Fold:
Amino acid sequence: MGKVVAVANQKGGVGKTTTVINLGAYLADARRRVLAVDSDPQGNTTAGLGVDKAAVETSIYQVLLEQASIVDAVVPTAVADLHLVPATLDLAGAEIELVGAVARETRLRQALQAVRSRYDFLLVDCPPSLGLLTLNALTAADSVLIPIQCEYYALEGLSQLMHTVRLVQKHLNPQLELEGVLLTMFDGRTNLSIQVVDEVKRHFRGKVYQSVVPRNVRLAEAPSHGLPILRYDPRSRGAEVYRELAAEVMRGG
Amino acid sequence: MGKVVAVANQKGGVGKTTTVINLGAYLADARRRVLAVDSDPQGNTTAGLGVDKAAVETSIYQVLLEQASIVDAVVPTAVADLHLVPATLDLAGAEIELVGAVARETRLRQALQAVRSRYDFLLVDCPPSLGLLTLNALTAADSVLIPIQCEYYALEGLSQLMHTVRLVQKHLNPQLELEGVLLTMFDGRTNLSIQVVDEVKRHFRGKVYQSVVPRNVRLAEAPSHGLPILRYDPRSRGAEVYRELAAEVMRGG
Ligand SMILES: Nc1ncnc2c1ncn2[C@@H]1O[C@H](COP(=O)(O)OP(=O)(O)OP(=O)(O)O)[C@@H](O)[C@H]1O
Ligand SMILES: Nc1ncnc2c1ncn2[C@@H]1O[C@H](COP(=O)(O)OP(=O)(O)OP(=O)(O)O)[C@@H](O)[C@H]1O
Ligand SMILES: [Mg+2]
Ligand SMILES: [Mg+2]
Structure:
């Protein structure tokens, strides 16, 4: 059975999408079968993997509303063994449409049952909020991977995020564990980055990945070509660290 | 009557909070009376202005649920003439709690009536989503200021944001205008930034501020001291551009 990992943090712009795409690509490169699930109405994982949203017939939206099976939504990407369940704009309506539904938080968990055995890892990209789409991902997940930008506001939101994780563990998914904490956009020239790293390592003792993603413009350029860093610039610093991260994740953190 | 400006973009981490705090501080420095309204459950504007959330008695949450008047929520900041309506964690519950309420999108507009005449500018910081909190801000606003990070994903989300603005103009707030588009985190050394700037200027002809905020670590450090850049490092590049932006906004864009 494949491992479902939700990549979540309600703070915006911390590297959730960049992590799903590039960790996913390097896991696939290491011969693991990977499914990326884009659960953010922005659809950045979908665009970043070069999938044309206008050409998508079945997306995560139809899957959550039980109008289609997840099997029909899966599409290939530029990397063999890395598949995608795309998101389109209509996903923005799902939170309101599901508000009155019974067991609305378990839609994704139920949907993933149909494909879990075909993959080794299923990585779910979450939107920057703790609403119904993120709750669905946390309820479906075996574990949660938390990207944290090496900046001040990143620390502010941690207690809120962990509070939500504990709520989900208590009421929706007792098996949910912390997969790990990934430090992103580290800039060694600034004290700020170093202070945040120290603080996060103290807060999440033993759960912070050795791999720390540096700020690296090649990571920001790759999505404009619809490619993971593995295809765009595999010799860049950003690529190296995501390859190391994949190795850590395969060893079990 | 003060001008209500919503600072919105559902893409995360583009500089919404940084703009509310620093534009607000420089408008206040130019003798304008400014109210910053933190409408994001993360409460980054509240923390970035040095207000202790644990000490807040009345927040935007009570105001939106009509449990308190906005007048009781207003607190001073380190800058004279810059006041704040703080946000606390309980705001995260407001979206669900207001789902069934009548005229749920107009709560903030109604609340601001009580204080609009006391301020020249009321800047509303929005969360990174197009949910009820952002809808409330767009419904209350005279205009919307859109920060856009000079990166690829920033372009992806624009059509969705403008679609929401048009919906609000049609059904909730016909007077809503585009105040302006602010380019943020510009890094002149990368082609990516230059390409995005060109694309945005073409897309929003005539509505893009001359002031382009550079990537500047002092802007990221200031909130860890609870200070706007005006107080933390007024001679930094980031500070200069936000001062220029304030001048542009006062001239009417
Ligand atoms: N290590 C890095 N170095 C430089 N740029 C990066 C890095 N990681 C991500 N980026 C860029 O920073 C921006 C934010 O990253 P990304 O979109 O992955 O964050 P996110 O958490 O998914 O954002 P959102 O909250 O909007 O979903 C993007 O433009 C991305 O290309
Ligand atoms: N011009 C800049 N140069 C460098 N860092 C910046 C700049 N503007 C903002 N930052 C930093 O980048 C991060 C994102 O900015 P900010 O929090 O203001 O964005 P936001 O749009 O409000 O995010 P969210 O979507 O989570 O509300 C913060 O850590 C902030 O301090
Ligand atoms: Mg994302
Ligand atoms: Mg913010």
